[in-house]
Design brief:
It is a single chain. The chain has nine helices and 13 strands. By secondary structure, it is of the alpha+beta class. A hairpin with a 4-residue loop joins strand 4 and strand 5. Helix 3 crosses helix 4. The radius of gyration is 19 Å and the shape is globular.
Length: 260
């Protein structure tokens, strides 16, 4: 990433709260402070990472270091601050944009919940439909309906990039699904916790729910006219994920679930 990014301008436009959902962080809010586990360190307990929206800063108790929003992204994604700034600039609008939206956002004195913070994450606009995707059993219409497609560049390069949303429909990240049997089958951006999301939960309607093993299975089921299909994003299924599924079924009034 060689694009020049003005760090000072970036930190004016992008508030640290906005990155919580984008980075897939599972945090509890107490006033201006958010606390949760650090997905980069994977140690220090469930309060190892602290984010302070008032001070626009973070601190990792595990590594005993902290900094601003750029340093946070660098820490969680394992990249340089220059690359972290480029990621933020790409996802939250580039320096050429006017500052009107950023100023409006900064004046909102009521911070929105973490699930709302990722609304500025932009869909990838370079995904394409090609023979590799068609070979997975998907049509161009299905890919368009789901916002999925082959990624010719970026961290999902050479894979089927599938958007991941939270239950409210906020775009959180993309997963990269192998198209030619590559290993691992699914890849995710650094900092995103695949255990924290049920894929396609935002599309669930009342009635019977189907649980499959892979996001691709959800899309191929849709291809065949079958909806109300969800998937976990991990091979191992934790008790927390099962609780999430039960909560989803209760919220959406799903009377039963079938496993495939």
């Amino acid at each position: 990433m060689s694009t020049f990014v003005d760090f000072k301008d970036l930190k004016t436009r992008v508030k640290i709260e906005q990155t919580i959902a984008w980075l897939g962080l599972q945090m509890r809010q107490h006033g201006e402070q958010y606390r949760g586990p650090c997905p980069a360190c994977k140690q220090g307990g469930d309060r190892a990472l602290a984010i302070n929206s008032g001070k626009e800063s973070y601190y990792c108790f595990s590594q005993k270091k902290g900094g601003d929003v750029i340093a946070l992204v660098a820490h969680l994604r394992g990249v340089t601050q220059k690359d972290a700034a480029a990621y933020l600039d790409q996802q939250f609008g580039n320096s050429a944009q006017s500052h009107g939206d950023a100023v409006h956002s900064s004046r909102n004195s009521s911070p929105s919940p973490p699930a709302q913070q990722g609304r500025e994450l932009k869909p990838l606009d370079y995904l394409v439909f090609n023979e590799a995707v068609e070979g997975l059993g998907l049509s161009e219409a299905t890919c368009k309906a789901w916002g999925a497609g082959y990624a010719p560049k970026g961290i999902m390069r050479g894979r089927l990039a599938i958007p991941i949303h939270d239950r409210g429909g906020t775009l959180l990240a993309y997963c990269g699904r192998s198209v030619k049997g590559e290993s691992p089958t699914l890849i995710f951006p650094n900092g995103f916790d695949p255990h924290s999301v049920i894929f396609a939960a935002e599309r669930v309607q009342p009635g019977q729910l189907c649980l499959v093993r892979d996001p691709l299975d959800v899309l191929t089921a849709y291809e065949q006219g079958v909806e109300n299909v969800v998937a976990f994003l991990t091979d191992d299924i934790s008790a927390q994920q099962l609780e999430m599924l039960a909560a989803l079924m209760d919220e959406k009034k799903c009377d039963s679930v079938e496993l495939y």
